[in-house]
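Revision sheet: structure tokens.
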Amino acid sequence: MADNVDLERFDYDSGLPIFICANCYTHFASPPGDCTTNLFKRTILLPEIQCRNLVIRPPGHQFLHCNGTTWHARLYCRQCYSEMGYQIVREDNPNRTDQVGMIGLYMSMMLLWNGHDLFALAQCLPKEPPPLPHQNAEPPLYLCRDCNTQFASNNELSKIDFKVPRIFFESSMNLVVDPLGRHIPHMNGTTWVAIVRCSGCNKIRGMSIVREDNPDDVEREGFVGLDMTLLNIWNGSGREVFSLMRRLPMLKDLPQVPSDSSTTSTPSYTSSSSEMPLTGSSSSVEMQESLTGSPISAEMQLSLNGSSSSVNMQQ
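Predicted:
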């Protein structure tokens, strides 16, 4: 990696969410659409073309995922050298080659700017007894921030919107919906919503779609949208509970990317000419050739180029 290089920065006023290093405020990504979010592993998956300011370990340091077919390389912040995630650099399963080139960023190592506020993501909370999952529940489980009452599991997850920020479920439990006289018309003119409260602590957690007059969206009736800052998650592992999002005190000035890299700390691993900064200008083909040191086949190029397509929310 070359020192004294300019770090790329996203526009805070673009209206898009921006993922930022929690240690040095370096910008990593500003996805234009829904992210693929794995809350079980507390990881956000993005195409490499959407990522910036990351450094990848050289080929000799790749490691095999526990599934036995996927090879990862660790990624580091280009400014402070904190480990931020991984990139899928090789896939031996022919049914999963579309994942090659994808980048996984650890939510707990990032901050999120959603256009209005700054948030911390997936922070570990003091250990508490794990909640009892309802029948056929698939972790992670989504819990009330204040009393850990269970609201939903991954089975019911519809989508996550980091900009709002809301998480939407097709069905839920332990939520009390305001009665008919308190239903509120949505600004779109066709949807009626009602406030929902936790049945355990009686605190407001979000809203439910109670009526939809648009025939094209009638299937959304009964969906709930919960405030992500009012939820905890339990991923089914041990007794650890995590916050989903936490709003941070607003800074006087938004965190900026330092322009002087002379203060950058020394990385904990040996620098190598093989290391490649991810700026978004390199294709998956170029990345793979850099990692392997040799050109790849035309068939593999087709598979790698397919990994930069738009990403949908995993349910």
